[in-house]
Amino acid sequence: MQATASTPESGLLRRTKLRHFLRTRRAQVTPEQVGLVHVERRRTPGLRREEVAALAGVGVSWYTWLEQGRDINVSEGVVNAVSDALMLKGYEREYLYRLAGHNPPWPRGSRPRDANGVRMRALVEGWSVNPAYLTDRYGRIEIASNSARSLFHVGLRGDNCLVKFFTDPTVRVKYPDMDTVARGLVAHFRAQAARFPEDPEFDRIAGRLHEHSPLFADLWDCHEVDNPYQRVRRITHPQAGLMVFDRVTMRSPAFPESLLTVYIAQPRTDTAERVRGLLHSHARALLSPSLV
């Protein structure tokens, strides 16, 4: 389905992102991976443009224009063929479709009558001992359960999980797998930005973080995309020690722009007992990791 019409400025921005994305993905695919014979030494890694064009079944000039971000019409079939040629994963493929102008429009319409999120709040609070929170399209907290506020000591409306992670070093050290968490956060934020191509706030947030966080800047320039709906999160709590969760994210048709995140204590660990102990001792006043 064709995306909704965009302004000339937003179209230029989308094509710029498309150019960078195609170049970075092409550089990561070797000739051997796609069955091409590598007979000569190359100055740069990855596939050449003519090789991607051949694999996708399109003209070299046409693919060059596409990668240069020229204003050309791209069919869904060509997007799919280029995705195959570059060996794109699921959400990378979806991201390319969006940049090429073939994204289904995000469900629009008025929010439910309980504009304050009464139903969603009841759902979030219903997760009991498992921390849960709701974030908006940018990763800002809208609702946090009592267990989430007690465990993480964060949950004020408007707190941005991404910004806190990359601007507060005391947050990052809570995560033994900090590099993996950072990579996933940035890839997810880029995927979110593609869902709302007309919204300049994503670029403003990314621009500020790009200036203030070298780590974010390096990851953002990689142009990776992902939607980590389920990930293992290891969190080192200053009082409870190491806890291991399955971090699960979900979307609701009633709240299409929001994301519900739940931390489920992994079985065969003592994480649930540690969380209960913190809750029973009113740990919400203690310093804890940010919600990421």
Topology (SSEs and partners):
Elements: H1 8-27, H2 49-56, H3 60-67, H4 76-85, H5 90-99, H6 118-125, E1 132-135, E2 141-144, H7 146-152, H8 161-167, H9 169-172, H10 178-195, H11 201-212, H12 214-220, E3 230-237, E4 241-252, E5 255-265, H13 271-280
Antiparallel strand pairs: 1-2, 1-5, 3-4, 4-5
Helix pairs in contact: 2-3, 2-4, 4-5, 10-12, 11-12
Domain MmyB-like transcription regulator ligand binding: 120-276
Protein name: Helix-turn-helix transcriptional regulator
InterPro entries: Cro/C1-type_HTH, Lambda_DNA-bd_dom_sf, MLTR_LBD
Please describe what this structure looks like.
The chain has 292 residues and is of the alpha+beta class. It has 13 helices and five strands. The chain has a five-stranded antiparallel β-sheet. Strand 3 and strand 4 (241-252) form a beta hairpin. Helix 2 (49-56) crosses helix 3 (60-67) and helix 10 (178-195) crosses helix 12.
Describe the structure concisely:
This protein is an alpha+beta fold and 292 residues long. It is 44% helix and 13% strand.
The main pleated sheet reads as: 5 strands, antiparallel
Helices and strands: which structural class?
alpha+beta
Return the average pLDDT rounded to an integer: 81
Count of domains: 2
Domain MmyB-like transcription regulator ligand binding: 120-276
InterPro entries: Cro/C1-type_HTH, Lambda_DNA-bd_dom_sf, MLTR_LBD
Protein name: Helix-turn-helix transcriptional regulator
Organism: Streptomyces chengmaiensis
